[in-house]
Amino acid sequence: MKLTETLTDLANPTRFLALTARILPWLAGVTAILLAIGLYQSAMAPDDYQQGATVKIMFIHVPNAWLSMFVWSVMSVAALGTLVWRHPLADVAAKAAAPIGAAFTFLALVTGSLWGRPMWGTYWEWDARLTSVLILFLMYLGLIALWRAVEDPSRAARAAAVLTLVGAINIPIIKFSVDWWNTLHQPASVMRMGGSTLDKAFLWPLLVMAIAFSLLFVTLHLAAMRNEILRRRVRSLQMMQASRVTFASEAGAGSRDGSAPKGAA
User: Fold this and answer.
1) For 19-29, how does the pLDDT look when each residue is reduced to its tens digit (9 = 90+)?
2) Which of 43, 128, 143, 242 could crosslink 177 through cysteines, CB 3.0-4.6 Å?
């Protein structure tokens, strides 16, 4: 019951803004501390006996790859909130998350290419994992373009929600592509049945970086949602002001020619 009441309270943009104002400084501080610890542990991690120092790209690449899929999953839940539950902040959450998810996906592609060059002998190969992540990046860009192209916010929200749910089909394809097809990527080594196959010297820095990047997403997402709410409020005020100016000009024109303005009794 309390959880339902809390979610109902957060549906109010004013209360949401008040909450983010209180927690964002703390989130930013914890994120910065964890990133500093994770980067230090990553730098101090030993070289791999096969990959050498290039294995340390993993500490940046893997969290970004995880978050590229996680952010789209968050947007899919928000899309359901838009289409099914009509939550007033659902479209705000999805729209604010899209550029962040695109950035994480781009970093995953870039760091993956840099890691792949010394390991595979090429920056790019059209295998299932790489291609499906590239498609995910293009879908992020398509969503961002859709929100910008459609002027009516409600129409843009519904169209983006439908596209998000359709694009969610790609998430399990990315996740299980290494199991379904023969790809250059190795199978899951961290989250797998029987425990992780990574040595603790690599596992702990990776987990710290994953938590740090996850908190970075939460921080950026809340800040972006706050900015989007304020942007929409400014837009509403501008439209109200424009309507008043139009009505006043019509009233002035009507008084000069002796006719009543449109909509006047």
Assistant:
1) 999 999 999 99
2) 128
